[in-house]
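Re: that chain you flagged

S.,

Sorry for the slow reply, it's been a week of failed gels. I finally had a moment to sit down with the sequence you sent. For the record, here it is as I used it:
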Amino acid sequence: MSTLATHTVDVIAGDGVGLEVMPAAIACVDALAPGYGFRMDWRHRGWGSDHYRAHGRMMPVDGLEQLATGDATLLGAVGAPDIPDDVTLWGLLIPIRREFDQYVNLRPVRILPGVVSPLTGVEQLDMVVVRENVEGEYSEIGGRMRRGSLQEAAIQEAVFTRVGVRRVAEYAVEVAMGRRGRLVSATKSNGILHTMPFWDEVVAEVAAGTPGLSLEKVLIDALAARLVLKPHTVDVIVASNLFGDILSDLAAAVAGSIGVAPSANLNPPRRHPSMFEPVHGSAPDIAGQGIANPVGQMWAASMMLDHLGQKDAAIALVAAFESALAAGVRTRDLGGTASTEDFTQAVLRYCGSVDAPHLPRGSG
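Prediction finished late last night. Pasting the structure tokens below so you have them in one place:
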């Protein structure tokens, strides 16, 4: 008698709508698991802003040690109006990315069935943004001086290393060669004197070792305009931490809604667990109303399944929420009237789970 493969996944629903979309994604994965020969061991972590209010920390002192024993982490959303964003981000998300060397932030972007781009004439869009995820512009080096005075100054240092740029470029090249062999490198080497020419040099060195690859170096401002005017001309983008963050959100908006966009924080050598999350934030303005779009969380869960070796189940999950969208079941951000639960129940039916349990509504 064969034993089902078991995947241990830490769940951090976090804040706001994360508490509502996370149960939706988990229900879909659990619905698919038996038919694809695996089971999930979900370890729910009550970390986030409530934990901060109670303990002065976004996660326990040994939180990273707890996560290190799992196969992956599924994150919902982090952020609350009464806590500074730098506290919530640097107290949870960024430490996880850096401690586990999740140096690739992978963001697929495409127009889903039944979703309309806000831009006229954009009917097809299918691209991947490969963002460097642990260094670059988001460094801890810097500070502020003469606070509160007219002479107050703030200094923030960007840090680019050869190993850091090279490894994300290598990953991006691999992604590009698995698609159309076209890679766009985002830069600003005409204005940023040291780090961006260095970025260009290292990316070019990596690309030169790959026959058949087309590499295009594009200034970030021109690339932003191109994503709006001619998004179909871009296939794979490799970008620094800041540039990748901005471009991937822009591309998601062009595709119709940031609420459907997923993200994977990957440690490609698999020495540490990777983390998967939707791109959207905690959305406190709609939290607790049961109207949040769970597609981004479901898509992130699909990316997690693929990473864990459950490729067929990952494909089935995407097919299920695409089928629900194609059938006209959409949440308000996509012009529909479905609640979070309405949409989830529709997806579960396509997953083969007709009598699915009702989902708890998040408290915000």
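What I noticed first: Confidence is low (pLDDT under 50) at residues 353-364.

Talk soon,
D.
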